[in-house]
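Q: How would the structure tokens look for this protein?
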Amino acid sequence: MLYEKIPEQTATISDGAGGTWTAKYVYNEFNAVTIKTDPRGVEKHFRYDEHHRVVEIWYTGLGGNESGTVRPALPSTVAATPDIDYTYNYNLSSKGTLSAITVGDYQETFNYDDYERVSSRNWTRDSKSYTISYQYNAGSQRKQITYPSN
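A: Here is the predicted structure in token form.
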């Protein structure tokens, strides 16, 4: 059986109340969505690294490009949204684990134990820092989660 990928696809969906809306999807060479256009005229863009992991998400009005150099303004009825950046550990010992997610002035970082399990998550919000720590049993099941006290 021969499969051919359709480079752009649209989906028309019923809202259950007699109305419909349409979304458009654009794919890259490894079949990952690069642009999703919603009925409001908002494009959600995805950028990937060489390992096909999402490294950036951003929103534009109609006509944005895949490299992010053309970013038309969002429709006036849509609030501005900061870019979302994903950072990965690229050294050989970390096996490409997620190290941070950044959204505007919010950043969350991830630390891992020797078995590449998340050992803690740290984030700063409104100038306050928070940490959640994880401990595991011999079967790699989480046995304890320690939440921030403040």
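The longest strand covers residues 128-136.

The mean pLDDT is 89.

Upvote if useful.
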